[in-house]
Amino acid sequence: MQAKWSVEDEPLPQWLEELEPQATDIRRDLELEELQTLLEELPGIFERKFEQRLQPVLNQQQLLLAENERLRAQVERLLPQPGEVRLRFPDKRPPSPARSLVAMPPLLRLIRGGRSDVGLLPTGEWEDPTHR
């Protein structure tokens, strides 16, 4: 039977043992250089990430500004020009009962019994609101 021989079982030569601390220092220096490089790249990474997240907001802002300009131009077109006369037409909606009572003069409101279904203009003849 042969004995298994491995490199691990054999002691390290003296010169290799002396170089081990130097190799450890070199590894540590390389790791520090890599970390330093990453630290120098970090602001650029954050800036690119920020710009990526900011881009949709800037696009939305541009759309809103364009829409604002369009609406302002529309309002400008709708405003009367100096010297222009525009007619106003009355509302075609029937007056609400609450608005009718408030708009009715106090004496007429008393005569009509405070009823909102009675017209605002007097008919010329006396009306008894209780007999309607």
Overview of the structural elements:
This protein is mostly helical and about 130 residues long. It is built from 3 helices and no strands. The mean pLDDT is about 75.
Topology:
Elements: H1 14-78, H2 97-103, H3 106-111
Q: Using DSSP, what is the number of strands?
A: 0
Q: What integer is the average pLDDT? A: 77
**End-to-end span in angstroms?**
130 Å
N-to-C order of helices and strands: HHH
How many helices? 3
Instruction: Report the major sheet.
Output: none
Overall helicity: 55-70%
Rg from C-alpha positions? Answer: 46 Å
Uncertain stretches: none
Strand content: under 5%
Shape designation: rod-shaped
- Indicate the structural class: mainly alpha
Short description:
The chain contains 3 helices and no strands. The chain has 132 residues and is mainly alpha-helical.
